[in-house]
Amino acid sequence: MATTFDPTAFYGAAQPEATKAYVMQQSMIRVKDPAASLKFYTEVLGFKLIMHRDFPQWNFSVYFVAHGVGDVPDDEDGRWDLCMRTPGCVELTWNYGSEGEDGAVYNTGNSDATGTSDGQKIRGGFGHLGITVPDVYEACQRFKDLGATIHKSPNGGGMKGLAFVKDPDGYLVEVLPQGPLVTKPLDCDGVAVDGGAGYKDNAAK
């Protein structure tokens, strides 16, 4: 079984000319309650809602949130244009009626049994979203103060200086520094930098 792969050749690979105006524009996740999700992504993680569209004929609505945008246009065409040119949006998709269901609705992909017919955890392909912040420790303390669930605190686990927070549906959001991985003696959960358990593969069954 291979344990490493050398991707060096891909660093210098020329981008096809036809793709040079392409934008990695979005990742989509389904959410149970749009109000709860928008509150989390805007107030806790600092995203901005830049466009939404309702499709009642198909019983769903979509909400695009992003970092690093300025003023959002007042008109639909302007919001569409801004959204389609903004890299790294998260598309939150709400299927009508899910907000009234009991418990978790969507499988998060991380050793999760939600939605399986036999109740067994699956080896999901989806892992997490991710943001970067100036100070991971300060950000996680703020997230905790706002009532967010810290899945892995900065000093938890074997990988120090990064964290994971859960959104209202249980999707993981990785929190990384905008620079080197640095550590502090204690984190928001009171875990010492020399504490915490070892690495855990969340995709494992």
Explain what you see:
The chain is of the alpha/beta class and 205 residues long. Helices cover 17% and strands 23% of the residues. The protein has four helices and eight strands, in the order αβαββαββαβββ. A four-stranded mixed β-sheet has the order 1-4-3-2. Strands 5-8-7-6 form a four-stranded mixed β-sheet, covered by helices on one side. The chain starts with 7 loop residues before the first helix and ends in a 28-residue tail after the last strand.
- How would you state the average pLDDT, rounded? 93
Cα-based radius of gyration, to the nearest Å: 19 Å
Q: Distance between termini? A: 19 Å
Number of helical runs?
4
Biggest β-sheet, characterized?
Answer: 4 strands, mixed
User: Which overall shape is indicated by the principal axes computed on the Cα atoms?
Assistant: globular
Compressed to H and E, one letter per element, the order equals HEHEEHEEHEEE
What descriptors fit this protein?
205 residues; alpha/beta; 4-stranded mixed β-sheet; 17% helix
Map the helices and strands.
Blueprint: H1 8-11, E1 26-31, H2 34-44, E2 48-55, E3 60-66, H3 76-85, E4 89-95, E5 129-133, H4 136-145, E6 149-152, E7 163-166, E8 172-177
Parallel strand pairs: 1-4, 5-8
Antiparallel strand pairs: 2-3, 3-4, 6-7, 7-8
Report a brief summary of the structure.
The chain has 205 residues and is of the alpha/beta class.
